[in-house]
Amino acid sequence: MKTKFILFLIIYILFASGHYGGDGFYTYLTTESIILDRNLVLNDHPERKFEIKEMERIYNSHINNNINEKIYSKYQLGQVIVQLPFYLIGLLVSFLLIEIPRDYITMFFVSMSNCVISALLCMVFYKILKLFSVSDRISLLVTIAFGLCTYVFPHSRQGFREPLVGLCILLGVYYSILVYDIDRSYKEILFPGFFIGYAIFTRFDTLYILLPFLIYMIIKTKQLLPNKYLKCVYYQIVCFFFPIIFFISITLLINYLIRRNILAFGYGNIAQAELIVIDSVKIITNIWGFFFSSGKSFFLYAPVTILFFWSIRGFIKKYRNEAIFFISIIIFNLCFYSLAIGSFHSGYSWGARFQYVLIPFFLIPVAVYLDNKKVNC
Q1: What is the rounded CA–CA span in Å between residue 158 and residue 212?
Q2: How far apart are CA 376 and CA 165, in angstroms?
Q3: In sequence order, what are the beta bridge partners of 268?
Q4: What's the whole-number average pLDDT of the chain?
Q5: What pLDDT is recorded for position 139?
Q6: What is the dihedral of CA 221, 227, 233, 235, to 10 degrees?
Q7: Cα–Cα distance between 122 and 173 in angstroms, integer?
Q8: What is the pLDDT of residues 63-81, one digit of tens each?
Q9: Helix axis angle, 210-224 relative to 190-202, nearest 10°?
Q10: Is 184 helix (H, G, I), strand (E, B) or coil?
Q11: Which carries the bigger pLDDT value, residue 64 or residue 138?
Q12: How far is CA 344 from CA 4, 196, 201, 354, 358, in A?
């Protein structure tokens, strides 16, 4: 496993950009503020000069244009907390390499965070394939396809939060399957609860993922303990939601401290948001765009996932509960983002960014299918 992780990490680092703009720049500045100023304010140094001119241009045009109002990042702190050790390492290195501007070094090390996250994501994906008894050869083949032949690869060099959210969701899935397939205490449902909670702490709209986990929890418990499954499900729900409630509470508390409203996020106030109207045209248009847009199609940027449609039938027959779990994640993701956003393109990103987290759930059935067919690698 260590060798595979290092291999993916080296590849990602070799293709890394070494800097962030857009979303990543906001999280970088928040990370820097926590370490240097011990606060979350981005514009408390209006006189600041950056060694990187592009950073100074973005800072002055988007952040430092209103010195009378405190500016905070639009984004939550999940990604920022992960970036803290990377910034600290860069800061230490900058004291050793004094001839290189500090901004170059700290930005470079922070930009490596998604390389590490993406390599870890590939390793968790590999371990999930082993839970389904997929052979080593097929597991490695499909993991390479996952890590290098989908838009997991380009997102490893960008500053978006999707790799971290994807890693947390996949870890939640891994521990959920592990709890029921091995003789373990149901208290270990705390682990998937922790990772899903952290995914929500990173992107609050990840709340949609809770329902698929509850569905899987109920199905598996009813199958294993039909006589007392209600009591066991109740116990598991308490354990599962304990860390999730903790992370949601922290998120709402931060919102209150910096914006004086627990429902005020960086992109707006949930309480003032328009009611979601079920518009069939909007849903169909967005789902069509997610999958078949000529410029943003999920399958265009992850073509190997097309094999899902050849493999899902056999996967359902062999692993019915897990198939329901994965398909429900896909359906809830599509339904939520089809209703919650005005357009399917997910902004300036590589591929359908909001569907990034779905890639592994399209490829796990493919790995099982290839293994059953004894494909020669």
Answers
A1: 28
A2: 33
A3: 265
A4: 86
A5: 95
A6: -120
A7: 14
A8: 666 666 777 888 889 999 9
A9: 170
A10: coil
A11: 138
A12: 34, 24, 23, 9, 15
